[in-house]
Each structure stands twice: as C-alpha cells, then as structure tokens.
C-alpha cells in the first residue's frame, strides 16, 4: 500500500514521535527542491506510508531530534538540497566533502559559495586514549570509506565512520530520464545488487504507470533475485572466514559463487544479470536448456555447501573468533529498522518478501530464519539458512514456472509509487514520480546500508581493533548504494 499527501509541521512532528516510540519504523527520508518526504512502515496500514512536508522557507522540523536514526539522512538532505533540519543534533555535512563544484547541487539555488568547514570527528574523553585513522583508501579492492577509531590499548572505545566518497549524483542524473534509462541506472547503484535495484525500480515504474507484468516474468524475476542472494551470501561467508584466518572455507565458497555466476551467465547472458529486469518484465527469457542448468546447479550447491557448513560448525578456532564478536543488541536493531541478515541475526524478522509480499513470493512457501545472539556467528548462520531457503525457492520456481511472454508494454504517463524489495542485504526502497510525458521527475533510492552502517559503530565498541575486519565483513554494508 502506498499513501501520500501533504502534511503540516504538527503532523510531521506526530509522525516523528511515533517513530521515536517504536510505533512505526523509518523506511526513508529524502529531500526535494521545496519539500521533504518521509516513508514509514506502519503496522496499522500493513504497508508504506509516504508523507510530504512543504518547506517554503527552506527549513523543516528535524526528525533526528527525537529519532536519531534520521541523523545521516538529514545531513544528506542538507548537503544535496540546502534544506535545514531545525533542531538537528548533528549539523555536520555528510556527502559533501568540499570537493564539489557547487553547493547543494539538487536545489533550485545551487551556488559556488564557500565549501564546508573542515570535518570534525566527535570527541572522546578519558585517559590513555589514542586515535587510529583507517581509509578512505584500503588495502583490498574495495570501495573507499574512512573509519576513525578511538581506542584504549587494543579495545575500541568509539568508532566513527565518514562516508560519501563514492557519491556519483545518481538522483540528479535520473531527472528527466525515461524509464529504460532509469532501469539501467538503477541496476548500477550497487553492483552486487543489480537485480534487486532493477527489480525495485521496475516495480515502482509499473505501479506508477498501472502496468501488468506477465506471470512468467514474475517467476523469472524471483529466480534471478534468489541467484543474486545465493552468490552474495557465498562471497560473504567466505570473506568472514578468511578474516578469521580460515581461508579454506573462502576458497570453497568462491568456487560455489563462481558456479552461480556462470549458471546465471549461461541462462540470462550476464554473470550478474545486469539489464535483464526492465519495466514490464524481463529483457530476455530463460535460455533453452536453462531450467536443466539451474536444476543441476541447485543439486550441486546443496551437497557441496552442506560439507562447508559442517566444517564451519566443527572448527573450534573459527567459532572462537565469530562467537560473541560484534554484537548488535536486538533493541538497537529494532530501533534502527535494520533489515537483512543484520536485523534477523538480532531478532528483527522483517523480510519484504514476507511482510509486503509481491509476486511471485505471495504464492511461494519459504521460511525467514531469525536468531537473537546478534554476533558475527549469528550473521553467518542467517546467511547459511537463507542460502538453504533460496535453493528451495529456486526448485519451487522451476517446478511452477508458467509459460507465456516475459514482457508487457508499459505506457509511460504521470504517476508516482514507492516500493520495497528484499535484496540480499535487506529491504531496498524506491520512490518514483513521473511527469505527464512519462519521464522521471524524482527518483530516490534508499539502500539498507543507511540503517546498518551506524550499527557497525555500536557493534565494534568493546571489541579489539583486530576484530574490526571480521565485524565489518559480517556487515558487508554497501558504500556505493549508500553514497549514491
């Protein structure tokens, strides 16, 4: 369900208090040239509620003053649009590192006034504290981000993140684009989630235009989404074990991930299924013999992965590293609305495929694994159980795959929609508004990492510095999906 309307400042404040009281969950907060919008998950309406607050004076009541989860979102709004959150507890820039040619690039009055002041990290007080700066350039082939540790000896007292290095101005690039271009850009927001982002954008476009997608396309979309989930979980499990000095599992997981990518390439023409999902359905059908390839794949993965899980579960030195490290308390996961394996490892069971079911998941049976330990080990086990469920879903989809076309025409026109789609990291929000010509007037993406990165700061407190790579890998938050 999608509800949108203009509200007054008092209504905005009441919604903010509902978020602070845990009655609703913040799903998104973003700016426009003269307004801000907030998306909340509300149990009362079993869906997404989107509210719009006009900001004729360039100010709006801060959500973060009552609900700190919104702090970084508000800082991004100010950087991009110049809209000022009144009463915010943190007015520092977030995406703007002082390197842009203009300030507030998405506002009507963008200009070249002075860059923001030098960035100041939050202070820590106490005896024998020292700081350790890490990044933004890292030793591996990974995206840039800065981590500022304050430690007492080897014990982490505080971690503060500085992101925004991968900002590409995606929302500005989409303004005025057509749906085909929008789907292409969506699939490149975060490369490891190309299926999930393309699916979320396409579903928003179809909802805004009133298009009906053929049943076969729905099932093939689910097949692609589960293949993406499996491949990424294999990569994560291997990387976590490697950072715990057990590269054997990483080697075997890398082989299984490669098998998934090769099968995807054989069946859909691209290892990551890029540009396969488009508004109206799919750009291409399952290749001849594709069903047989995928059935062999599920059988192979099931047997080989079971042996990897047995090794993980019976290696005491590995369990000693992952057990009890990087704990996210269930209350904190609930407060931040953390999705995916991070939320489900800390007792929050939300899964968009189950909570807000969309075809074909509304007709598929599957379980959502949940644990409450909240540590690295729990996040590994959630991934393990999700791989098992995804393999079962692949078999179910192949057994019930309808025949028929895989794409329907989409007649572009004025409309708007907001959708949630479950990616491998968690729920992805897309808000889309089209003008009368069917071109994109406003498109906003919210990656699950927005509500997960802050939890990494909390999870590492009290751990030793050497456990940060392990904790970080168990989160595997997206830089590019967050920075846009």
- The CATH architecture assignment of the largest domain turns out to be Orthogonal Bundle
Computed Rg: 22 Å
Determine the CATH topology of the largest domain. Cytochrome-c3 Hydrogenase, chain B
- Give start-end ranges of low-pLDDT stretches: none
SSE order, as H and E?
EHEEEEHEEEEHHHHHEEHHHHHHEEEHHH
Strand order of the largest sheet: 1-4-3-2
CATH superfamily of the largest domain: Cytochrome-c3 Hydrogenase, chain B
Tally of separate helices: 16
> What is the total tally of β strands?
14
Task: Give the overall average pLDDT.
Answer: 94
**Strand count, sense and closure of the main sheet?**
4 strands, mixed
In short:
This protein has 484 residues and is an alpha+beta fold. Helices cover 40% and strands 17% of the residues.
Describe the model.
- The chain is α+β, with helices and mostly antiparallel strands and 484 residues long.
- It has two domains: 1-108, NADH:ubiquinone oxidoreductase Nqo5 subunit (Beta Polymerase, domain 2, 2-Layer Sandwich), CATH 3.30.460.80; 170-483, Cytochrome-c3 Hydrogenase, chain B.
- 40% of the residues lie in helices and 17% in strands.
- It contains 16 helices and 14 strands.
- The strands form five sheets. A four-stranded mixed sheet has the order 1-4-3-2.
- β10 and β11 form a beta hairpin.
- The longest helix is centred in the middle third of the chain and has 29 residues, at 215-243.
Key descriptive features of the protein:
484 residues, Beta Polymerase, domain 2, Cytochrome-c3 Hydrogenase, chain B, four-stranded mixed beta sheet, three-stranded antiparallel beta sheet, 16 helices, 17% strand
